[in-house]
Amino acid sequence: MGDAVEFNPFHPEYRRNPYPFYHHLRVADPVHWSDLAGRWVLTRHADCVAVLRDTMRFSADPYKWEAFEEFVQTQGGADSPLLRMQTSWMLMKDPPDHTRLRTIVTKAFTPRVAEGMRPRIQAIVDGLLDRVQAAGKMDVIADFAYPLPTVVICEMLGVPVEEQEQFKVWTRDLARSLDPIITPEIIEAANQATVAFYEYFRRLIAKRRQNLQNDLLGGLIAAEEQGDRLSEEELVATAILLLGAGHETTMNLIGNGTLALLRHPDELARLKADPSLLPSAVEEFLRYDGSVQMTARTALVDVEIGGKVIRKGTQAIILLGAANRDPEVFPEPDRLDITRKDNKHIVFSYGIHHCLGAPLARVEAQVAFATLLRRMPTLRLATEELEWRDTVTLRGLRALPVAFE
Q1: pLDDT at 3 (0 to 100)
Q2: Integer CA distances (angstroms), 375 to 14, 301, 323, 372, in order
């Protein structure tokens, strides 16, 4: 890694294990200006939480960033399909638009609704494991972690589940565009994926207008038809966001969590012996190797943090993954501890932009891990040669081969 203090997600070791890099930054320069990213980079838990909760002085709206016009040109210009879609997402809105968009869908993702879905999630999990049980091996990502949340969110939206394979490529290309430093090739692929998604959802929505159903997409269409709650652009963008976010993060949670368990046999044995630890285990998987590693905010005024001034109009990258390993908040932060108490991780972000789907992700993960360990108690890694996906904002494995009796 060397002694240089820099945020460099292109370092060969970064994708495999970013946490030593985070630690180095947190100790040496916790409020770090990155020439490479053209942004500030925050690594301490207290600083990250302070920025995320401060909606008066920090904005999620990329239009407030002073370098946004320059950024737009790298994205293919103001008419870029990707840019139009992303700036319609609630993730990149401030109140009152954020409040309006979030309110439309929030009822579908309450803890009570998520708990009510537990039997259906259990049935999906059992069906997926039935397919691989006799083989004695599987790829946790392709056979389990990807299809589980994909089927769940497709059913919630009212999207045909059998079409999930075509979403896989589109969402992968969109995920790569979320990184703080991206190439023209990534932008081009993401623009093509955006166009394909828009065409798909516009066709589906046109059909559904003729026969509104009581599902998430039906609710979005009804809100759009009321005229003052949702534009057509926001309707399609929100459907794409829910579909993508509804499976990407949970897929990585299950994959990263399974790998963490298999590499910590003492914790694996503890969880097998006491399944009541599942809720705290899932929280620890989220903290230890989170699906979402970073987000960004733009300063609306000059703000001093850690002796540095983040000028109005400049952007800060909030390294959620670094905050979740901060020793000031988490004793022995690099140790997996499925009994960890008072786990104040911020992998789901913090404040008004706290992840809408967090309750559902938790239920999906709890059911997935409980069933996996019960049905495949001899689960083990089939290889140590693992490859991580080439994204840094979203962290996950390309594949996770395992074997079992």
Answers
A1: 58
A2: 34, 55, 35, 5
* Bridge partner residues of 308 (DSSP): 305
Bridge partners for 73 per DSSP: none
Token look-up 């840094």 returns 392
* Domains in the chain: boundaries: 19-403
Predicted local distance difference test score (pLDDT) of residue 225? 85
Helix and strand totals (H; E) in the chain? 17, 10
Give the residue ranges of DSSP H helices in 144-297: 147-157, 164-176, 184-209, 216-225, 232-262, 265-273, 278-288
Q: Can you give the pTM of this predicted structure?
A: 0.94
CATH of domain 19-403: 1.10.630.10
Q: Low-confidence residues of the chain, pLDDT below 50? A: none
Is 388 within 8 Å of 15 (Cβ atoms)?
yes
Give the H/E segment covering residue 284: helix 278-288
Residue 166's pLDDT is 83
State the greatest distance between any 2 C-alpha atoms of the chain, in Å, as a whole number: 62
CA distance 297 to 62: 8
Instruction: Please state, as a whole number, how many other Cβ atoms lie within 10 Å of the Cβ of residue 308.
Output: 15
What phi and psi, each to the nearest 5 degrees, are found at residue 160? -55, 120
- Give me the residue label for tokens 């079992």: 404
